[in-house]
């Protein structure tokens, strides 16, 4: 599997605090079925990291994993806050691309409104970027107005949902909204959004097993969501095929649509 979203780099944001923790996360990822992981540190108002340093930091982590015998390939990337788009130079913005390519992992504001986000996406597209939205199931603006998210997808964005959200790790409201995203075909990728080796782990396989226990129909889509789509994104391509449309269980759909 390929994990497009992790906070693997040490001492840079709210993820791994040091290199030993990075190696522990890498070991957990490999044991949990992940062969390639993208390190996506925050680039935000709180974590004003310089994307031009990420390549060297990724190389340091890769070297440590190799020395520890962990069979995991680490690629460069970033989780880019919408608020930082106009503060980055062109070279810094390009250094945020997943796998060094043209896809950006964009994080809208978690709780507040997301004004002009469609225009921001349009401006990025004019510069040659494609946009993958980070954990849309946990974004307040989308929870309040799912049509806003639908509009962004119609505009060309893809959605990277945290696997733990499907497994119920972020609570019932997030789980219900995640189910609604699946029902509308708005889930294109499942990623870990890992922050440590245990509580928010990059070990995708056990989390996906929990998710399948909640949503059995998901099982036949796992390759699409964790291999096919992320491989296309890292290759700088548009993923082929339509995303899954999975209706909630009988009795849940009415509650979802009555929110």
Describe the SSE topology:
Elements (H helix, E strand, L loop, with lengths): L1 E5 L12 H13 L4 E4 L2 E2 L10 H14 L5 E4 L2 E3 L8 H5 L8 E5 L9 H10 L3 E5 L5 H5 L1 H9 L3 E5 H4 L5 H12 L5 E3 L12 H11 L7 H13 L17 H6 L2
Parallel strand pairs: 1-2, 2-4, 3-5, 5-6, 6-7, 7-8, 8-9
Account of the 3D structure:
The chain is an alpha/beta fold. The chain has one domain (2-257): Alpha-Beta Barrel (TIM Barrel). The protein is 39% helix and 14% strand. It has helices spanning 19-31, 54-67, 90-94, 117-126, 140-144, 146-154, 163-166, 172-183, 204-214, 222-234, 252-257; strands spanning 2-6, 36-39, 42-43, 73-76, 79-81, 103-107, 130-134, 158-162, 189-191. The strands form two sheets. A six-stranded parallel sheet has the order 3-5-6-7-8-9. Strands 1-2-4 form a three-stranded parallel sheet. The two termini are 34 Å apart. The model is unreliable at 251-259 (pLDDT under 50).
Q: Give me the side-by-side strand order of the main sheet.
A: 3-5-6-7-8-9
Number of strands: 9
Number of domains: 1
Oligomer: single chain
Can you count the helices? Answer: 11
Radius of gyration, taken over Cα atoms and rounded to an integer in Å: 17 Å
Catalogue the unreliable spans.
251-259
CATH fold-level topology: TIM Barrel
**What's the helical proportion of residues?**
25-40%
Structural class: alpha/beta
CATH architecture: Alpha-Beta Barrel
The CATH superfamily title: Metal-dependent hydrolases
- Strand fraction equals 5-15%
Which series of helices and strands comes N to C?
Answer: EHEEHEEHEHEHHEHHEHHH
The largest sheet is: 6 strands, parallel
């Amino acid at each position: 599997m390929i994990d497009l979203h992790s906070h693997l780099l040490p001492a840079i944001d709210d993820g791994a605090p040091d290199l030993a923790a990075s190696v522990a996360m890498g070991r957990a990822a490999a044991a949990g079925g992940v062969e390639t992981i993208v390190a996506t540190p925050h680039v935000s108002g709180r974590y004003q990291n310089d994307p031009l340093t990420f390549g060297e930091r990724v190389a340091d982590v890769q070297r440590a994993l190799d020395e520890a015998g962990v069979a995991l390939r680490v690629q460069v990337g970033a989780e880019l806050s919408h608020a930082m788009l106009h503060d980055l130079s062109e070279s810094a913005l390009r250094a945020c691309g997943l796998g060094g390519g043209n896809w950006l992992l964009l994080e809208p504001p978690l709780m507040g409104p997301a004004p002009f986000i469609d225009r921001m996406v349009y401006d990025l597209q004019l510069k040659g970027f494609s946009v993958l939205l980070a954990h849309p199931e946990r974004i307040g603006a989308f929870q309040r107005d799912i049509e806003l998210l639908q509009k962004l997808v119609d505009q060309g964005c893809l959605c990277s949902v945290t696997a733990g959200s499907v497994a119920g790790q972020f609570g019932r409201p997030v789980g219900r909204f995640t189910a609604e995203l699946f029902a509308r075909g708005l889930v294109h990728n499942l990623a870990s959004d890992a922050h440590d080796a245990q509580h928010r782990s990059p070990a995708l396989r056990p989390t996906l097993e929990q998710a399948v226990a909640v949503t059995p129909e998901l099982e036949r889509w796992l390759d699409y969501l964790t291999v096919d789509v992320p491989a296309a994104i890292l290759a700088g391509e548009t993923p082929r095929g339509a995303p899954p449309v999975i209706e909630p269980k009988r009795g849940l759909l009415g509650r979802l649509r009555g929110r």
